[in-house]
Every structure is written in structure tokens, then in C-alpha cells.
Design goal:
The structure is a homodimer of 292-residue chains. Chain A is an alpha/beta fold and 292 residues long. Chain A has 11 helices and 8 strands. The longest helix of chain A has 24 residues.
Chain lengths: 292, 292
């Protein structure tokens, strides 16, 4: 388990890595950071987000680490681990922050040394801004934390990342397997971003900006999107996302058919179903947080 | 123009009609209301939203009215006007609050007596709750007010409904023709509701409620929908809404193809376009309000 003596290393201090560092340090933990940007390291040191910061993966720094959080984009993380894993001490525990787990967790567990342990986890949090300069661990208070253990993970590793999420004050902590996680993310997060982007790019009328009401603004808020990261996440979860797009499109085509046929009664039924379901979601959100 | 002596009549005191009554009375105007619900009339009188309230369209009440706001659903409004127009005094000005204008404004102008004037207008405001019991004219402070004059309307009528919107403190006031209005609404409001409903009804996994983040909540907030009113609005604007659904679907299919082909570069370009456009929308919203 994590104690104030545990040497925690965060590799990649962007918005999420930086917010982890900020929260852990605020709670008295011993955090070291690596980020290739000198500005990020300088900022984090000045803010007290970590005690030591480096722009290179120095072997002696990696060797001292007991618990490592990889804050890099998924494929950059795999490259980094491939290049640097030999410097870790035996028994090192590594987790990540990736938004997709297929092709990441299994891949890392496959190529990593058998005497270090990789366990996937996903903080379902973010902001429309990026970088350590916008870090704020309070964004986790409204967020879910998902742990995606595989048969290669130990109960100790699961307990440690659960403790990490508790320290950072995530609202709920859940365990899912990789497939469950990626299906959930494919629907709730990736499909919604695909819809928002398509809605934003399908109409060229520039005048429309003057008339946008809350509905359109709500649906397109997430159309401001980090193009590098989201392309990567979409492609890593391609098959599941395509399934979700097809499922949603079929439902929209059903609505279109009812409209075309002038079938008021079945349109109303669809709206009633939608209203009832959305109300259930609000109830689910209002339920007591699962922090056990 | 409206003065404190003008006899204003509001027919149909739901959320919007009730909020109009509330705002007009708060500014010292003389408001009378008709609503078939005794509870609504009782509530509005008790709250001071209007000075006189009736549950029937009494001929002498209609005869006294100089400016009439029809707060009923679109087709109910047409039925009501057909049944009661003979009681209005010559020169009466009538406007509405309907969310669709084709098949409404032109129809009303067609069958109404030549000595009364109907001018379409649309307060682009609402809440997830309904009825006069939830009335609040402050919802207009963040909203657009659209006037849809036709060649049959007088400059005086346009100026009067513009004044109405100013009294109610709408953020912006704009004029559009009927086709422009319905195309704008078909895209910004109806397409977004069609998407939200389809997203809400396309997946049966009840567990998902536990994981919903802000993205999904934002996209489905409007999936709680008044099924009677929205079915009516969708069907009144059927052709335009279908065009918009098709345009959006084509864009989503484009994204799906890029994903299928693993075309990271063009996916990123699509995301960049989406991000740039959404930023423009925020700029447009932040521009000074057009209240002239």
C-alpha cells in the first residue's frame, strides 16, 4: 500500500498527470515527476506538485520508484515503457491513465519484465484545457475511477490503485474487465464525441452561431477536442466504436422513418421511453457514491 | 405600441404564456389571461401574473383585447383561433410562441379576418419543467427572440412584438423569414433533440447509469422531452428535419469511414475543424447582444 514513504513517480505531467501529482503532494505523499517539457517541470516544482522533477528518464530515478503512474498518451506510453523498463527495480507497480484499455493493458503486460506489475486504470475526468498549467485534482471529486485488472494482476496491486483513487477523492471506484471498460467508454464517451464532432462539422452556415441555444451548446461542448489524443483513442477502440455508431445510427433512422410516415403515436412512445430512461440516469447519478 | 393602458390578453398560460404574463405584469402592463385549467388561473391571479383570469374564451373578454399572445401548442392554437376569431375587435394584433412557423403563420394569416393582424414570433426559451407553476420570465434573459414577419405584416406589428421582447428582456431579437426560421430550428433545436432521444434509446444496458460522465449527460439532458409538443413540432417541420438528419448522418458516416480505414490524418483534420468551429460559436455567443 502507499505510505508517505512510498516513492511515487509520475511520467508525463499533462493535465491528468499534473493533477495526480498535485493531489498526492497535497496529501503529503512523496512525488517525483518526469516530463520532457522544462516549463512543465519548472511549473510543477514551483507549485509544489512534486519534490523532484526531470526532463529525462534518468536510470537512477526510475530505479528508486516504487509506484509509477504513466501520464502519457497510450502509444507513447508503450514506447516509453519498452525503452525504459530495464531501469525499474524488481517489484515496481505501474499504472496508467489511458482512456482505452484493449491493445494497451494486455500489450504492456505482455512485453514488460515479469518482476514488475502493470495494472490498468482510468480516471474518467478531464477539462477542455490541457497541460499541467491547468492541473486541478478537484476535478476528480465528480469523476469515476475505473480499475481494469486482468488475471495477471495481484490483489495487492488492485488495492494500491484503489487507494490511489481514494487519496485523489474520486467520487466512485469500480472494477471492470478490459472488454467491459472499452464497451462502456465506446458508448458513453467515444460515441458522444463522434456525434458532437459530426454535428459541429455537418453544417457550414456561419450565421447559426447567433441563434445557438442551450441544446446545441450542450451537444457540441465536447466538439472542442484534442485531435491527437482522440484520434489515437478512437483508433485503439475502432471495432467497438463502429458497433456503437451503427447502433445509434439505426435508432436515428428509426426516428426518421416514424417522422416520414407521420406516425405521431410511435414518435410519442419513443419520446416517452427516452424521457423515462434519462430520468433513471439522474436517479443513478444521485445514488450514494461507491467508495468502498 | 404597448403602453400601460394596452389591454393584453394571454391565451394558454403554460410555462411560456405564464412567464410572459409574469414579466409583463412585473413591468406594470395590464394582463388578462385565459386558460382552461382553473388551477392555472387561480395560481396566476394569486401570484399577480395577471389582473383577470378566465377558464373560457368569453366574447366580451376577447372583444376588449388589443394585443393577444397565443400560448397554446401550434395546432391547438389554430383550432382556437378558428373557433373564436369573430369576437376580436377590429385592429387586434395577435402573436404566438410556436417553435415552428411553416403551416402555422401562413395558415393563420390565411383564415383570419382581414381586420385583425397575426404576426409570428418565437421565444427560444424553455425549461425541463412545464406549466405556469414553473413560470419565470428571467429565463428569457439568456434567450433569443425571433420575429417571423411575412409580406402581410405591418411595420407597426413588427415594432410591437419587438417591444414585447424588449419588455421581457430577451438577450437578442432577430427577424427571419419563415423558411429561414424553420431551417435554423430544424438544425439547432430539432436535430439535437432527435440525436439526444436516439442516443438515450439505443442502448439497453442499465448499468451504464453508474458510469455516465459529463459528456453523456450533456448530450442527453434534452432527451427528457415533452412527447406531445415535440411530436407536433417534429411533424410540422418534417421535411426540413429529415434533411438535417440526413446531413448529420452523412457526416457521421464519413467519420465512421475514416475510422474503418484507420485514416488518422483525416480524423485529426475533422477534429481540428470541429474544434475551430466550436470556438467560433463561443465567440459568437460572447458578442454584444443585438437589442436594437
Amino acid at each position: 500500500m502507499l505510505t508517505e514513504q512510498t516513492k511515487i513517480l509520475i511520467v508525463g505531467c499533462g493535465l491528468i498527470g499534473g493533477s495526480y501529482a498535485m493531489g498526492l503532494s497535497a496529501k503529503g505523499y512523496d512525488v517525483t515527476a518526469i516530463d520532457q517539457s522544462p516549463e512543465a517541470i519548472e511549473f510543477g516544482l514551483a507549485q509544489g506538485f512534486f519534490r523532484r522533477g526531470y526532463t529525462e528518464p534518468l536510470p537512477e530515478v526510475l530505479h528508486k520508484a516504487e509506484f509509477v503512474v504513466m501520464g502519457l498518451y497510450p502509444t507513447a506510453m508503450l514506447d516509453w515503457l519498452r525503452a525504459n523498463q530495464q531501469h525499474f527495480a524488481p517489484g515496481t507497480l505501474i499504472t496508467d491513465v489511458s482512456g482505452v484499455k484493449s491493445n494497451i493493458v494486455d500489450t504492456a503486460q505482455e512485453f514488460l519484465r515479469p518482476d514488475v506489475e502493470f495494472i490498468g486504470s482510468h480516471p474518467m475526468a478531464g477539462k477542455e484545457t490541457s497541460g499541467i498549467f491547468n492541473a486541478d485534482y478537484h476535478i476528480f471529486a465528480a469523476a469515476n475511477f475505473i480499475i481494469t485488472p486482468t488475471e495477471k494482476n495481484t490483489p495487492e496491486a488492485i488495492a494500491t490503485v484503489r487507494q490511489l483513487a481514494q487519496i485523489l477523492e474520486f467520487k466512485t471506484i469500480r472494477e471492470l474487465n478490459i472488454r467491459q471498460h472499452d464497451q462502456m467508454i465506446g458508448f458513453l464517451s467515444q460515441l458522444t464525441h463522434a456525434i458532437a464532432v459530426s454535428l459541429m462539422t455537418c453544417n457550414d452556415d456561419e450565421e447559426l452561431g447567433f441563434f445557438t441555444g442551450d441544446s446545441f451548446r450542450d451537444l457540441t461542448r465536447i466538439a472542442r477536442i484534442n485531435d491527437v489524443m482522440w484520434s489515437e483513442l478512437f483508433l485503439l477502440n475502432r471495432d467497438i466504436l463502429i458497433e456503437n455508431i451503427d447502433c445509434f445510427s439505426a435508432e436515428l433512422m428509426k426516428l426518421r422513418s416514424l417522422l416520414q410516415a407521420g406516425d405521431r403515436e410511435r414518435l410519442q412512445k419513443m419520446f416517452q421511453k427516452s424521457t423515462a430512461r434519462r430520468s433513471q440516469f439522474d436517479v443513478a447519478k444521485a445514488a450514494p457514491a461507491d467508495k468502498k
